[in-house]
Amino acid sequence: MASCRYHPEACLIEDSHAGDIICPECGLVCVDRCLDVSVEWNYTKTSRPVENSKIVHPEGDKPDDMPPNVPSDESRNQKRIFNQTLKMAARNIKEMAEKLNLTKAVVDKAIQHFNTIHDKEYLKGMTKDSIGSACLYLICRQDSMPRKFREVCAVSKARQKEIGKVFKLILENREFLPHEI
């Protein structure tokens, strides 16, 4: 058992996030990078505890008592990350539109167009900022609220060259064009 060399009678505190054991009297880290090897229990919809080890299982190798209809942690994380990406992109598009004094209708169409492109994964590898900027520019052209390409690039976090590439890719693929262009 670890103890503080300056306060041996002190009751030590465990910081599970950092993995440290700390003396509350002086703040000395008595043990660092501790590994918690205990088992984590989660409850599912069936109200049965399911043992989830903190060690990552190879794909397809789930614990035996996990019901088959419960989505895996990996798929839940992917959905959460996907939703966070869409929210962040929508926030960026709104910020750019605010700087360009665009209407809410244009913003909503640009966000919807971004979601369509992001769902299809056609522009995989391009930054979300460049895709959002290209969508905003495209919708501005469509709704007769023209903004210069350089104006959109000036309020974007992405580089002008990358926004131009994304815009050209969208124009080349008719599936991703808004209907009225």
Automatic annotation (TrEMBL):
SUPFAM superfamilies named among the record's database cross-references: Cyclin-like, Zinc beta-ribbon
A Pfam match: TFIIB
SMART domains with a match to the protein in the record: CYCLIN
Transmembrane feature ranges: none
Listed GO MF terms: RNA polymerase II general transcription initiation factor activity; TBP-class protein binding
GO CC entries: nucleus; transcription preinitiation complex
InterPro entries with a match to the protein in the record: Cyclin-like_dom, Cyclin-like_sf, TFIIB, TFIIB_cyclin
Protein name: Cyclin-like domain-containing protein
Organism: Artemia franciscana
